[in-house]
Amino acid sequence: MKMRYFAILLLSAVLLTGCGGSTSTKNGTTAVTTTTESKDKTDLADLMSTQDYSCTVDDSFMYYVMYVTNNSDKVVSIDLNVTALDSSGSMVGSSSDGTKAVAPGQTAGIWTTFDEWDKIDSFDYTLSVSEEKEYSPVYSDLSVDYNTTDSGIVASVTNNGTSAADYVWMDVVYLKDGKMVNFSELSFMDDNQELQPGTTLSQEGTCYSDSGFDDVVIAINGRK
């Protein structure tokens, strides 16, 4: 239902040192509206801080978005498995996705949709994090500029590096009074799925919400 190309912040974890190169995981549960918890952790997954958002669109489907910030000193790949639960705790849907080459200090976005919008009360998730071995981050090469409009967002991304950046995209969560009301994913790529060195590309996103929006939270993803 969507194209994935990868990029900023609920459920948080607090930093302790000591992470290896193997995959580590953490589990969590979130209500449809955001909640927060803090725990002392020691492995790579627990050096990630997370914030998730969800909203129903047109009584048709539900967005689920997780922003993950890499608080470790490693470049990592991140995989998310999320299960939607009804009010009795029964499973009504499941989805998985991920992002690669997340640099230290970078916030990346992972999102999915659920058709069981009228049944979902909360989410369980498992976040799997491993040190990235195949791809390199482009986070420090990219500069981002955006303006909000009455209807959404206009954004541009520039590749200031010396090599092409692959699969560069921006996740945009639209907020009204602190709650998610809609979502956009904007891609900044040519026909080869690349953002060339020295190139700036622009995109526009629209917030389809009767209530409008008063804030946005963005995340930028990419790799090389």
From TrEMBL:
Source taxon at top rank: Bacteria
Swiss-Prot/TrEMBL keywords: Signal
Signal recorded as keyword: yes
InterPro entries (UniProt xref): FxLYD_dom
Signal sequence interval, chain numbering: 1-21
UniProt keyword Signal, yes or no: yes
Protein's name according to its UniProt entry: FxLYD domain-containing protein
